[in-house]
Every structure is written in C-alpha cells, then in structure tokens.
Amino acid sequence: MLKVIPYGELGRSDLGWLQSRFHFSFAEYYNPERMGFGKLRVVNDDIIKAGYGFDPHPHQNMEIISYIRSGAISHQDNAGNKGVTNAGEIQVMSAGSGIMHSEYNLGAQPLTLYQIWIRPEKLNVTPRWETQKFPVKAVRDQLPLLVSGFAGDQGAALFIYQQARIFGGRLEKGTEISHIIHGQAYLLASYGEIEISTLADENVSLHKGDGLEVTEIKEINIKALQDCELLLIDV
Questions:
Q1: Percent of the chain, pLDDT > 90?
Q2: Do the domain assignments include residue 225?
Q3: 5 falls within a domain
Q4: CATH at residue 42
Q5: Residue 44 belongs to what domain range?
Q6: Residues whose CB is less than 8 angstroms from the CB of residue 231 and which lie 6 or more positions away in sequence, other chains included
Q7: Residue 94 lies inside a defined structural domain of this protein
Q8: Are 75 and 115 in contact, with CB atoms under 8 Å apart?
Q9: pLDDT at 134
Q10: 125 and 22 share a domain?
Q11: Distance between terminal CA atoms of the chain?
Q12: Over the stretch 140-168, which tens digit does the pLDDT of each residue have?
C-alpha cells in the first residue's frame, strides 16, 4: 500500500529563526494519528536561519540522524565530539545513556535538513556521534545505503542501534530504478518530482516535501519526473 503524506498537510511551527514541518507529532504539534511509523518516531523538515541554532540540550535513548540538504550544521556535545556536517552529508548521534549537545548554523545562508529519530533496540548505550560524506553523483542503478543497524552493512554505512536502513540519492530526470523493501518504508521527497509504482499497479507522484508510507510491498519502482533527491527509511 502506498499512502502519500502531502507537504501541505504536515504539522508546522514558525519560531522566526526556525521553520519546521513535522511528519509526526512533535513539540507543540500533536496528532494522535501521526505518532510515528513503526520504529520511526520523528521526521522534521527544518529551515534554520544563518547565525541561529539549538542551544545545549539533552537527549537519551534515541538514534538521531540529520541529513543536510543545504548549508552546514556545526555540532558539539559533552562527550567531546565536535564537527561540521555539510550539504550532501549525514550525521548520526546515539543518545544512549544521555548526552548534551548543541547544533548551530554558523554559515551565511539558511540551513535545511531532515531530522530523523529512530527508537533504539538497545537502551543506555555509551553515547556516540559520527558524520560521513556520501557520493553526490546522480544514481543510475540503486540508492546508496547511508545508515544501517545491520552487522553486515558496517563499513558501508553509518551505524545505528536498530534493525533499520536509510538509503538516499539524487536521480536525473527520466531515471528509473527498482528498490527492495525489507520491512516497511517511509520515503521523503527532498526536491523535484518522483513517481512511485508497484507490481500491483499502484502509482503515486511525490513533490518536494511530501512523504510516502510504503506498507505490505516488497519492491517499488522509482522514476524521476524531474531531477530529484530522495531518502528512503526502511524500518
């Protein structure tokens, strides 16, 4: 089953320095029908003004993944981790037993990112943070694996404490690829227009900012109707 979650129907918040769209209940946005998707708890589509960010604050027992769409985010935490993650890169923080961190947009332009929270399968682990750059060339055959909690994927992707995978990539207009779904998936259209179809002749189109729930389906076909970028969270 394919269920489109249109960008215009997402929860929203505007703090001036931070504009957010919420795919699931978060902060002041509460929707009892949108409390998560399996192990996936949060997907926030954020825009942060230059010179602003999140002051030091705590997290515990959550896998927090940030995919930077434009700009750069500067991270620092009380475990001694410090670094900058740029557009096209992804960072992972296992909050585990507890961590205090800050994140700022220290650049001159707005920062746009997806913030993704996944519930861990192992609690109270030692907190950790890492970032990695992935190829930005357009995909021709398959989506690159970005994040995984499966032992066999270590070395090819950033690690999280959950049996889940995140794939992502850019497709040029007209490109078609197939993708196997191992559990259920939540797909994000970062930009462009994308057509998703199945062997059962289901067919939907996604535009910038839309989400898509994919359930009870083992394979989808992805076609770029325009140059596009997407993330696929298999949880």
A1: 95
A2: yes
A3: no
A4: 2.60.120.10
A5: 11-134
A6: 67, 114, 146, 166, 167, 168, 187, 188, 190
A7: yes
A8: no
A9: 86
A10: yes
A11: 15
A12: 999 999 999 999 898 889 999 999 999 99
